[in-house]
Amino acid sequence: MRGFVWALGLLGGLALAQPQTYAVEGRVTYAASYTLGRWEGTNTSLQGVVRWDSQTGEATGRVCVDLARFDSGNPLRDADARGVFNVSRYPQSCLEVEQLVPFGEEAVLAGALEISGVRRSVRVRGRLVREGNGYLFSGGFSTSFTEWRLIPPSLLFLRVNDPVEVWVEARATPR
Hints:
Elements: H1 2-16, E1 20-34, E2 37-52, E3 59-66, H2 75-85, E4 92-103, E5 106-115, E6 118-131, E7 134-143, E8 154-155, E9 158-159, E10 164-174
Antiparallel strand pairs: 1-2, 1-10, 2-3, 3-4, 4-5, 5-6, 6-7, 7-10, 8-9
């Protein structure tokens, strides 16, 4: 009988270690500046599907954002951003998720991010908090226009500065 109970415990432990598939939704916010000020733009179109093994940190999946949907509160600035991203040719920016490694409530999300046809590895440091059966990830990173071969928007003699700060808030719920 003890052997049967031990086998059930082992099978239960193996079942817990299996990767889980999550639907991901959220938002991306950027903060940019120029000589005379600073502003933020938010995009609530973040969505995708990720398969994650919480034991190993290994992950696969894709999470995308519609680049035309950034809202900074200034329609002209948002139109400039759509031009910088060339949304008619590259309407989405997507992250191919490769890893999510938690360290307590801290976590590092790693993957390959594509913006306007340029693909680069990124690491996003943040917090991973359990919410019922799902998770909330909040984190950010700094980047520059030149990393993505983008030309910073400008008006007369004012040009948007590097770096640009990017924050992600993503809620993952089991599928």
